[in-house]
Fold each of these.
Amino acid sequence: MLPYNNSMTTVVGRLAPSPTGTQHVGNARTYLIAWLSARSQGGRVVLRIEDLDGPRVKPGAVETAFNDLRWLGLEWDGEPMIQTQRLSHYRAAFERLQSMELVYPCTCTRADIERAASAPHAEHEGPIYPGTCAHRGVADAARLTDRPYAWRLRVGNDTITFDDRFRGRTSLNLHDIGGDFVVWRSEGIPAYQLAVVVDDAAQGVTEVIRGDDLVPSTPRQLLVYRLLGLPPPSFAHVPLVVRPDGRRLAKRHGDVHLANLRRFGVSPQALLGLLAWSCGWIDRIEPIALTDLVARFGWAAIPHDPFVLTPDMVPAIGGR
Ligand code: GLU
Ligand code: ZN
C-alpha cells in the first residue's frame, strides 16, 4: 500500500477531441499547449472522445483523432474515455439535478427563443433564453407527451469568477451569457455542459486547457460542479488559430487538416516547430522535437491574440 494518496497533488491534463470533423492545425496547437502544460509539471494526460453529437460524428473520425495525436507524439495515459459508453453516468448526474428541482422541461424551439429574446447577444452564444418554460417543475414533464422537450438548468443571476491561468481573472454573469441552459437534450442525450463536467471529474482532471471559444462555457460548468458537489479543475483558455481574414480554421480548409499534412509528408517536428514559434517558445520556424519543447513551455510567451495562419506557412513546413 502507498504511504499516502498523492492523487490530490498530481496534475492531470486532458485532450478532448470531438470526432465531428478532421483535426486541424488549430486543434493541434491547443492540444500541444494542454499536453505540455501537464507534462512540464510531471503530470498525466488523459484522453476523452466527445462523440455524443451523433449525427455530426463522422465514421472513422475517432480513429483519425487517435492517429493525429500519435503522429504529433501527444501520448496519453490509460484507456481513452468514450462518451457514448457512459450514458448511465450522465443520467445519474442529471437525475440528481432533477431531484433538487434545479432543472425544468423546455419545449421552446430555437425559433421561439430567437423571437422572444430581447437583445442580440455575445458572439457565438445565441440569444439569452427568456425563461418561457421556467414556471415548470420536474413533474410537469409527465404531461408533455405531445412534443419534444429539453431540460434546462436554472442559473439565476449569479456572476461567476474564475482565475484563468492564461487570461487572468475572468467574471461572467450567467444570465448575460445565455441564462438557463440545456443540460439534457430533446434527443435524450446529455448536453456538452453536463457531460464534460461528469467526465472531467471522473477522469480526475485537475487542469482544463482549451480554446477561448469555450470561455462562456466555463461559468456554466463551474455552476454544474457546484450543484453536483464536485471539485472543479483549474482552467486556461488559449486563443484560436485564424485565417488572415480573422475567421477560424474550418472544415473546408482541408490544407490545414492534420491528416492531409501527414499525407503530404509534413513531419510532426516541422508542425511542432511552427506551433512552438506561434507560442513564442522558439525564435524561428524550424523543426523541433516534442521532448525539447517540454522545457521550453511557458505561459508568459504565448501571445494573447489569435495566431494568424498565413497561406505561406503551411507550404513553408512542407505542406501544400
Ligand atoms: N470536444 C470539444 C472540442 O473539440 C472540447 C471541449 C472541451 O475542451 O471542453 O471542441
Ligand atoms: Zn422553453
Amino acid sequence: MALIVQKYGGTSVGSAERIQAVARRVVETVKAGNQLVVVVSAMGKTTDGLVKLAHELSSEPSRRELDMLLVTGEQVTIALLSIAIQELGQPAISLTGAQAGIFTEAEHTRARILEIVPDRVERHLKEGKVVVVAGFQGVIATEDREITTLGRGGSDTSAVALAAALKASACEIYTDVPGILTTDPRIVPAAQLLTEITADEMLELASLGAKVLHPRAVEIAKNYGVPLVVRSSWTDEPGTWVMSPVPRSRSLTGLEIARSVDAVEFSTNQAKIALLQVPDRAGIAGQLFGALAREHVDVDLIVQSIHEGNTNDIAFTVNKQASKLAQAVAEAISPVLHDNFVPSHDRVLVAGDIAKVSIVGAGMIGRPGVAAQMFKTLATAGINIQMISTSEIKVSCVIAAADSDRAIASLCQQFEISTSSNEHDRQHPNAPSVRGVALDLDRARLAILQVPDRPGMAAELFGILAANNISLDAIIQSQRTRVIAGVATRDIACTVAQGDAADAKRALEASVAQLGCGAVVVNKSIAKVSIVGAGMISNPGVAAKMFNCLAEAGINIQMISTSEIKISCVVSQSQGVDALKAIHQAFGLG
Ligand code: ADP
Ligand code: ASP
Ligand code: MG
C-alpha cells in the first residue's frame, strides 16, 4: 500500500461542487489501494479577501494578527472536504497545521518549517482514515503555541514537507492548469505543457515569477528526494514531474533551515571584459552578444549595470583561452555601439586573471543572510569582489585569480563544506537551452550610488538588508569607478520585492552616509523577465537571441543578470508582458 500526499489549490476547492469533485478523486485514490494525506488551500480567493479586509483597518497590520486571520481560510476547507469525503462513505478527519504536528520558526507571515511530528497523522492513517490537513500554517513549539503561516502560496510547501516527513511515495499538486507550462498560460495562451523539468530549473522559474509552485516546496522536494508532480484537478492527464537528483541523506529536524549551502564551486582561468559607457537604448546588448555568438565565444556571466546619465556598462566573463577573441570582437564592435563618442581607451576594459567562486544550495531561498555571509567571509579575507551574480540557488563572486585559493578555503570553512568542486565538471547533456520563461511584475529596483570600491562594502550593505529579513536578487555593480573626494566608487543595484522596497530604503538610508555611500534610489515601475534552462550552459547564442528579440520589440534593457541556468532582464513595467510574449515566441516555445 502506497502513501500519497495530494494537495489541492484554491481554485480546485473554490465551491461546494468542486470540493465534491475533489472528494471523489480522493476516494478513488483510496480505492486504488493507497493511504492518503490531503493538503488544501483556502477556497478560491479567500486569502486575498482576508488580506484586503485587514488593510481596510490598518496600513500595516500586525503580522501576528494577520496570521490568526489568514489561517481561518484553510480551516474552512479542511472541514468541508472531510464532510464531503465522509459523505461518500470514506472515513476522514481534518487537522489544522498545529494538530498535524507542523512546527515552525517564530517568524509570523513567513515562517519556515522546523520539524514535522507526524505521529497523529500516522495514527489516523492506520485507523483507515483520509487525513485532511490545512496547508500554509504551522505552530511555534513554545508554550504559547503561537500560530504561524508559511508565506503566500505556502500550501505547496506544507504538502511537500508532509510527504518528506511521512516518507510518502509521491506528492501530487493538483491545480487549475494541466501542469507546468513553458510560461504562464494566462499571459501566453500558446504556452506548452512540459512533461518534466529539473528541480533546479523549477526553483529558478518559481522564484522568478512562475507562481505555479512555491519555491520552498521545490527546495524540500530536491533536498529530500520527494517525487513531485503537478497536475490538473479537472482531468486525469499525467501532468509535469519535477526531477530531483538522488539526495544525500538528511535529518528531518530543521527541515527548512538545516543546511543553506551544499557546495562551494569555483571556476578559475577566466577573464572579464567590460564595455563602458554604451548608450542606453534598445539593441545594444543584442548586437554585442550576437557578434560574440557568431564567433562561438562561450560567455559565462553577464551583468549590465544601472545607468549613470544615459550610458550603461556591460560586463561578461569568458574562459581565458577565449579572452583574446572576445576582446577583439568587443573592440571591433565598440565604435558602432559607442557611436564613436567615447575615447577608445575608455571603451573596453579587460581583466585577464580572474576567478569565479560560488556557493550553491537550495536552502538559500528567501534567506538573505546567506549571501551576506559569503560577502562578509570574503571581506574578512581581504578579498575585493569585482562582480556579483545571484540566483535563488547560487551566489557567485568574481574576484582576482590570485585570491581564489584563499576565497575557496574561507568559504569552505564558513559553510562547513569539506571539498570544493570545479563547476565545469557538471554537464546537462540533454536539457533544452530554454525550458521556460517567467515574468515578475512585483519587483522594485534598489540602487545604492557611489559605494566606495573596497572589500567589505557588499557585506555591509547586504548585511543590513539581511538583518531586516529582506531578500534580494540580481545584484549588479557598475564596472566604471567614479572618484568622489579622492575615493573610487561604484554604483550597486539589486531587485527586491515591491513590498519590501520602502523598508529596504529606510534601513539602508540609516547607514549609507556613515559608510561613505551616496543616495539610495528606488524604482518600482520595472518588470523582470527571465529565461531558464539547464542546457543554456555552453550555448553561446542564447543570450544574444533573448537580447535581440527584445530589441526587435523595441524594448530597452535596463539591467541584465545571469547565472548558469538563467538570464534575467529588467525592463520597464509597461513593457513586461510584451517582453514575455516576444521571448516565448522567439524561442519557439508556443
Ligand atoms: P493553486 O491555487 O492551485 O495553488 P496558483 O494560482 O497558485 O494555483 O498556481 C497556478 C497558476 O500559476 C496558474 O493558474 C497559472 O496562471 C500560473 N502560472 C504561472 N506560471 C506558470 C507556468 N510556467 N506553468 C503553469 N502555470 C503557471
Ligand atoms: N491560501 C494561501 C494563499 O493564498 C496559501 C496557498 O494557497 O498556498 O497564499
Ligand atoms: Mg499556489
